[in-house]
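Hypothesis: this fold can be encoded by more than one sequence.
Test: take the structure tokens below, design a sequence, compare later.
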């Protein structure tokens, strides 16, 4: 399965994600001038990615993941035309229906009184 999402910050930056039984791969379609300017943070159920798109704008991706990852086994690679984020699933063999969990901090839930 392959999924595509867009985050816009002046310049359109798209990413796709695919999965196997043991890994999740996110590919960000962007030619990063300096790989040192890429910031990636892996937590057990959270991913944060940021890098400059222009001198005054940044791409930021913050995901509360649907399941846990093995943070010590995750890595990122910068290629000439793309950035790859490889996450290793903690629960091997479990299918992720989406990247983000349901009812996460990013989701606004209205309370009725």
């Amino acid at each position: 399965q392959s999924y595509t999402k867009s985050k816009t910050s002046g310049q359109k930056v798209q990413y796709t994600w695919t999965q196997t039984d043991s890994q999740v791969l996110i590919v960000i379609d962007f030619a990063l001038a300096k790989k040192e300017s890429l910031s990636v943070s892996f937590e057990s159920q959270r991913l944060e990615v940021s890098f400059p798109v222009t001198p005054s704008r940044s791409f930021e991706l913050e995901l509360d993941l649907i399941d846990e990852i093995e943070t010590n086994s995750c890595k990122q690679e910068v290629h000439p035309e793309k950035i790859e984020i490889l996450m290793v699933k903690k629960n091997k063999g479990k299918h992720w229906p989406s990247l983000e969990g349901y009812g996460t901090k990013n989701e606004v839930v209205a309370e009725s009184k």
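The mean pLDDT is 84. The first strand starts at residue 2 and ends at 9.
Hypothesis status: open.
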